[in-house]
Amino acid sequence: MSALEPPRIRVIATGGTIDKVYFDAKSDYEIGEPQAGAILHEAGVTFDFTVESVLRKDSLQLTDADRALVRERVIAATERHILITHGTDTMTDTAAVLADIPDKVIVFTGSMLPARFRQNDAVFNVGCAIGGLLVQRPGVYIAMNGQLFPADRVRKNREKLRFEER
């Protein structure tokens, strides 16, 4: 890739609120189709990307085996730039499993509200994550609330519904 050539990006979708579909009857939900691809298409991005749906789970339901699967998919990806959409509750746990993967820029993002809601933080978070992918050196990062954090130095503040440096 030259300095002027945009990167190819692989989006790995694991589920989480960003992909949730809610039903009115019982305020129940299920994880739907990955929304990152639709967000990128609607934004009119000019780089190539592939969306791979690896899991469709709430992050509180992820197991060590699920995290190992995400790791395998990141390692197997031919792309150097990886965007992972993930539930916010255990995003840092999965990021820790990927910490030693060399030569890839990996950025996690998600949302506090489903991307399908009219008002949501998903579009902004995906945009911030893409920006991070384009400028960061290899490593693992989390893009939430308008900031890009090294994954090992961030935590979710559940009371304030935001991510912050720890």
Automatic annotation (TrEMBL):
Pfam families xrefs: Asparaginase
Keyword line: Hydrolase
Broadest EC class assigned to this enzyme: hydrolase
Key word Membrane present: no
Superkingdom per UniProt: Bacteria
E.C. designation(s): 3.5.1.1
Name listed for the protein in its UniProt record: Asparaginase domain-containing protein
Record organism: Synoicihabitans lomoniglobus
Taxonomic placement: Bacteria, Pseudomonadati, Verrucomicrobiota, Opitutia, Opitutales
